[in-house]
Amino acid sequence: MVVLLKRPFTFILSEMTLDGKLTSKKGGSSKLIMEYMDEASKKFLHEQRASSDAIMVGCNTIKIDDSSLTVRYAEGKNPLRVIPCSLADIPLDSNVLEGDAPTIIATSERAPGENIDAIKERNAEVIVCGRDKVDLKLLMDKLFKRGIERLMVEGGPTLLWNLLKNRLVDEIKIIHIPFIVGGRDAPSLVGGEGIKSLNESIWVELKDTKMVGRDLVTEYDVVYEKR
Ligand SMILES: NC(=O)c1ccc[n+]([C@@H]2O[C@H](COP(=O)([O-])OP(=O)(O)OC[C@H]3O[C@@H](n4cnc5c(N)ncnc54)[C@H](OP(=O)(O)O)[C@@H]3O)[C@@H](O)[C@H]2O)c1
Fold first, then answer.
1. Which of the chain's termini has less CB crowding within 10 Å, N or C?
2. pTM (2 decimals)?
3. How far is the CA of 204 from the centre of ligand 1 (A)?
């Protein structure tokens, strides 16, 4: 029997340098480059958060950036924070475990019980979905069933690759910070194992460009196949 999974409308929003990097060096926090965003594009980012029912980042971003994922530069409510983390091993003093917004840690059957219990004691919810890794399709279905209709994903590159590979993304919005950082190992927008041949390329269609303060913002529909 085929089970049809439903999911929220899902968009990626990332801030990126002119040379496509999400941060200035491997293992470095994106907060370093975010400091150079125009005030207007910071507001835009936070408006996008406020327009979403939930916001997702990968657990390595939490470990490196210690993101809060709250709405601070705009009016509006904090979205539900959703962190896929296969071993439920995010630091217990992470900002996403502070009570200023609800948080779900999505984990796998491999997660040690003591990690799960410790997170629950920090007032976050834990959802087990997936055997070895978080099953992103199943997670989307669970989020949709609890009323999440609009999901914003802020990165990082490993999570973005896995979402795109599974065709779980509808739209991509990029805030282009007008400088270049270079560096062989600095993470770019999408990571993971990447495509094996060009016929697996994931196609997008540009649908809008605008200046937000000094920063260019581009918006794409993810169409997957070449049209
Ligand atoms: N400029 C920006 O907009 C921006 C935004 C966010 C992040 N960043 C930067 O990106 C970097 C971190 O990116 P990253 O690629 O290392 O990590 P990431 O994408 O934030 O997190 C990846 C981790 O999520 C966990 N995960 C659980 N289930 C998964 C699944 N099904 N698919 C994918 N991941 C899953 C995995 O860890 P487990 O195996 O432990 O579960 C995986 O290693 C940092 O330098 C950060 O500053 C930049």
1. N
2. 0.97
3. 22
